[in-house]
């Protein structure tokens, strides 16, 4: 509201209550060329800008994040004579992702003097084996196999799957497994509000053969 003109000013239009307001046109953050706006009378102050929904800001912050996809770590891992990667029937096939892809993330969005910050936290790693078997799940990024772990040992993280059959009858004699990282999404806002957004899952694929142990050819 500007400094009020005298009541005898024509802009009051005979009114004695309320107030005179100045409307100035703006574009790209500056006054509109060639005009100083106009004055008008209102009995009550004009409504302010609508409140910004913090959940909308949180969704915008989430869209600004690049959430990592899992890397496709696997053991047994080698190549058959035809160059195809493989694992072995009934072996504990370990799966894991690089720990750097399994870290919390955050981002913030601001609008209308308000802000919301979103927190994205990895909660589990999944392995869809591609042979029709059940999805295997574990709570962390898994453990990368090392020679000291032994050839046939299960993963200490529980991130493993045992293929009951070879992939000889699968398309191209291989399976395509899907790795997935599940992410929980929560947010806080400058208004004190908090909330959650739907879980996010990022995925990557790996294609390989499942071979009978006696038929594996290593290099």
Give a description of the structure.
The strands form four sheets. Strands 6, 7, 9, 10, 11, 13 and 14 form a seven-stranded mixed beta sheet that branches. This protein has a three-stranded antiparallel beta sheet with strand order 5-8-12, with no helix packed on it. It has one helix at 54-64; strands at residues 19-23, 26-27, 30-31, 38-42, 73-75, 78-79, 85-88, 93-96, 105-111, 114-128, 136-138, 160-161, 175-189, 194-211. Helix content is 5%, strand content 40%. With 219 residues, it is mainly beta. The chain is rod-shaped, with a radius of gyration of 31 Å.
Annotation keywords:
219 residues, mainly beta, 7-stranded mixed β-sheet, 14 strands
Strand-helix topology:
Elements: E1 19-23, E2 26-27, E3 30-31, E4 38-42, H1 54-64, E5 73-75, E6 78-79, E7 85-88, E8 93-96, E9 105-111, E10 114-128, E11 136-138, E12 160-161, E13 175-189, E14 194-211
Parallel strand pairs: 7-14
Antiparallel strand pairs: 1-4, 2-3, 5-8, 6-7, 8-12, 9-10, 10-11, 10-13, 13-14
Give the end-to-end Cα distance, rounded to a whole number of Å.
Answer: 82 Å
Average pLDDT number: 87
Helix content, binned percent:
under 10%
Major beta-sheet overview: 7 strands, mixed
Judged by helices, strands and strand pairing, the structural class is mainly beta
Dominant shape: rod-shaped
The ordered string of helix (H) and strand (E) elements is: EEEEHEEEEEEEEEE
Unreliable stretches (pLDDT < 50, length at least 5) are 215-219
What is the strand content?
35-45%
Question: What radius of gyration results from the CA coordinates?
Answer: 31 Å
> How many distinct helices?
1
Q: How many beta-strand runs?
A: 14
